[in-house]
Amino acid sequence: MRLDDAVGRLSALAHPSRLAVFRLLVQSGPEGLAAGAIAERLEIAPPTLSFHLAQLASAGLVASRRDGRSILYSADFTAAGELVAYLYENCCAGGCEPAVHLPPVRRADRRTEP
Amino acid sequence: MRLDDAVGRLSALAHPSRLAVFRLLVQSGPEGLAAGAIAERLEIAPPTLSFHLAQLASAGLVASRRDGRSILYSADFTAAGELVAYLYENCCAGGCEPAVHLPPVRRADRRTEP
DNA sequence: AAGATGTTTCGATATTTCTAGAATTCTCGA
DNA sequence: TCGAGAATTCTAGAAATATCGAAACATCTT
């Protein structure tokens, strides 16, 4: 992952509404949520939300698909994971293991690489 | 960590120069680097670098201390770790363990500790 | 086909961010 | 104390971002 890609994803998340949207989509899982539902839930005017969703999509953090009249947005977990990995490797390397403390997810699937 | 704090730190890192600065400071370890050294290394005009360092400091991501004529900046590993943890918990929860794959830094490893 | 619903695009404005030259502050050595 | 070195602050203009009403677009229902 290049620095510019990381900056793009960080910029996309560096706004209260967009971070809230992304968190909500993460909570909503792979099915995602309709734009209208997001707007109502977070009390964001539809055009404004559309603008923010476009930014998240442009950064590759969310995907969209039409479902009837609605458009469902869902978090791209791979992209989010890549960003976290980038930050962990580039902005924590050597110094901040103690603070990370990632217990909420099981480590059962840990890779066994040489 | 509140959402607004996360946004503050994300915003601080969401700029090519600032992300480069922070990476450099992480690589430089706890001793840090003088502002002039950073400016020279990354080819950033001093006033511009000062502006970016102030943003990073304001977000709590870097600390500074005077050393003679120089001012040394160093990464705040705790703050960085908190941000990574926040993203991991709020933006990955349940979906992106595979992508994270954090092998580059071994946990509970305390190498080259003098 | 017409109307209703969900979403985006357009347009105009307000706000924030970025950049770097000039001037200023602080510190050290002579 | 003076001059030089290191960094910041001041300043102002350019660029990017944010907001949302109005209008347009796509889709469903009747």
What report would you give on this structure?
2 copies of one chain form a homodimer. Chain A is built from 6 helices and 3 strands; from the N terminus they run H-H-E-H-H-E-E-H-H. Chain A has 114 residues and is an alpha+beta fold. A 3-stranded antiparallel β-sheet of chain A has the order 1-3-2. The interface between A and B is large, with 49 and 49 residues. The structure holds a DNA duplex (30 and 30 nucleotides).
Q: Which short descriptors sum up this protein?
A:
homodimer, 114 residues, alpha+beta, 3-stranded antiparallel β-sheet, 3 strands, disordered C terminus, DNA-binding
Apparent shape of chain A: elongated
Termini separation of chain A comes to 23 Å
Biggest sheet of chain A, strands in spatial order? 1-3-2
Q: Determine the most extensive contact between two protein chains.
A: A-B, 49 and 49 residues
Helix content of chain A: 55-70%
Short description:
By secondary structure, chain A is an alpha+beta fold. Chain A has helices at residues 3-13, 16-28, 35-42, 46-58, 77-91, 97-100; strands spanning 33-34, 62-67, 70-75.
